[in-house]
Amino acid sequence: MDPRAPRYKQIEIPLTVTNEAGEHIQCACVNISESGALLHVTQDHQLQKGQRLTARLVKGGHLADVTMRVERLDGDGVGVRFLRDD
């Protein structure tokens, strides 16, 4: 990353995830990496550790369905890990 690139704090990117029951859950993505993300759930949904979610994200320059698993639930938000396609 270019050290001159601007760094932003408190940016939340809107994201809709879908749970295994097909319910759409509105979230705000506050941190994302190659392996996972930190989400703030903006609706009153009960997520559980180990639960699988899907979302449409840009991957390799194209929209792709990405599956993730809830790894942690705490005051910082919902930590999810992206699952590989294989």
From TrEMBL:
| Superkingdom as given in the UniProt entry | Bacteria
Span of domain PilZ: 5-84
Membrane spanning residue stretches: none
InterPro entries linked: PilZ_domain
- Point out the signal peptide segment: none
Q: Name one GO molecular function term.
A: cyclic-di-GMP binding
A Pfam family recorded for this sequence: PilZ
List the protein's name. Answer: PilZ domain-containing protein
